[in-house]
Design brief:
Strand content: 15-25%
Distance between the termini: 34 Å
Length: 212
């Protein structure tokens, strides 16, 4: 079962703008007093589903030089949807993977630029409260910046879906109770009784070397 969140995008945005808006979104959703640091990891490598290279953090100008939501004019030599980016709040292991989906390319649909369906930024999280909340914030930020919508059809936080990012934030934001980030993420998810206590885990445990 997938638990992806989607932000639809009618125009591309720089990766650093997506990160900054996601930080602002987390502040508003969780009632934070300071924005959390979000790491962006690139160039991870997998072998038969196992991570063999943890990749590297993108910083500064490198973040500003990457566009998210960019359309491909024709069949690409390298599908941008295959470029691997992952996000996590600094200090956590609850990764959120980004995959780009352009209906014009992936479904072979042909339409004028004005009539094309928006590009979809698909955020696939670790199935923890921290991972899911981070993914939701990323999708809300992408939809807001890209003049698009927020889609949570695979999770269905609300009984009546809300696609407007700003409205979704207002409907679900938490008051500040002074608790830590992970506790706020758990509190955010527990407000949705229809999820029956999902995700069960609040966050992934630290890596063995960090725990030791």
């Amino acid at each position: 079962m997938s638990v992806d969140f989607v932000g639809t995008m009618h125009a591309p945005v720089p990766l650093d703008a997506l990160v900054a808006t996601t930080q602002e979104t987390l502040v508003r959703l969780l009632g934070l007093r300071a924005a959390p640091v979000i790491d962006v990891i690139a160039d991870r490598r997998f072998d038969q589903g196992s991570l063999v290279d943890a990749g590297r953090c993108l910083r500064g100008q490198e973040l500003g030089g990457v566009l998210v939501g960019e359309r491909v004019p024709g069949p690409p030599a390298e599908d941008p949807g295959e470029r691997d980016f992952a996000f996590c709040v600094a200090g956590s292991r609850d990764m959120v993977r980004l995959m780009m989906f352009d209906p014009h390319i992936h479904l072979g649909r042909h339409a004028s630029h004005e009539k094309r369906e928006p590009v979809e930024a698909v955020f696939s999280p670790a199935r923890t409260c921290v991972g899911v909340v981070t993914a939701a914030a990323l999708a809300l930020a992408a939809g807001s910046l890209g003049d698009g919508e927020f889609i949570d059809a695979e999770v269905s936080l609300l009984q009546v879906p809300e696609s407007d990012p700003a409205r979704m934030i207002e409907l679900t934001r938490l008051p500040d109770r002074g608790d830590d980030f992970a506790a706020r993420c758990e509190r955010f998810m527990r407000q949705f009784a229809r999820l029956n206590g999902w995700p069960r885990d609040v966050q992934l445990p630290p890596a063995p070397e960090a725990a030791g």
